[in-house]
Amino acid sequence: MTTDFIVRPARPADARVLAAPRWRFKLEDHEGRPPTPARPLEEAEQWIHDRLSHGHWLAWVAEAGGDICGHVFLCLVERMPDPYGGNAPIGYVTNFYMTLSQRNKGAGSALLEALKQHCRSSGFDTLVVWPSERSSPLWRRYGFQPPDALLELPLDA
Fold it and tell me: How far apart are CA 20 and CA 45, in angstroms?
């Protein structure tokens, strides 16, 4: 494990650099020849820029040699006030990515630690993630567990 990286909060100006790996790793999900993307990369860049600018989404990046080599995103999910308890927010964790050359070197762990530290100090109640089959063991290693009670209603068009 090396520590030749830094972890910092992402900025709106990082949007272009953060959008490209999003497109790359989504294409990795397709075995063989991936389909042509239906949306341009610039759409993701604008979306990321807007979300980071307004603060409802946060992200952290890992940099090695001055280049962003990984990132993780967090969306604040507010909860309704409760007369008998708190309404601490829930964090939706997504878009966790490390470049192949930086995997298993500690930067990913540092990203998740920065995210968890922020959430603890900000009073979050729970973090949730919808892992892929491939990423599920990683999330379990970091303490994520299946929920006791969660229901889901897919809204297929």
Answer: 8
pTM of structure: 0.87
Kindly report the number of other CB atoms within 10 A of residue 11's CB atom. Answer: 13
pLDDT digits (tens, 9 = 90+) for 100-146: 888 889 999 999 999 999 999 999 999 999 988 888 888 999 999 98
Q: What is the residue whose two structure tokens read 């990286």?
A: 5
Nearest to 52 by CA among 12, 102, 23: 12
